[in-house]
Amino acid sequence: xxxxxxxxxxxxxxxxxxxxxxxxxxxxxxxxxxxxxxxxxxxxxxxxxxxxxxxxxxxxxxxxxxxxxxxxxxxxxxxxxxxxxxxxxxxxxxxxxxxxxxxx
Length: 104
Fold this sequence. Notes:
Elements: H1 4-23, H2 31-54, E1 70-72, E2 75-76, H3 78-99
Antiparallel strand pairs: 1-2
Helix pairs in contact: 1-3, 2-3
């Protein structure tokens, strides 16, 4: 039961890759730019999380769906995949709106 959330995140990221490839939204539009933007976004949000944890704002919730593995105190491994999904989704949405024809 402890891998359910991790598996759901992996499936969701796979869905983002499929959409990206099909519609050429992010990596398939400009792989060099995407391979810089995605890690920078993930690192930014990881630093944000670490700051929040250090200030006592963020806490790791207890649930049977998570692995229990932590990268740091209060920072579960699933958080890295969640942040990757969040950044990838954002860039795919941005790419979709950028490709949309302008009316007017």
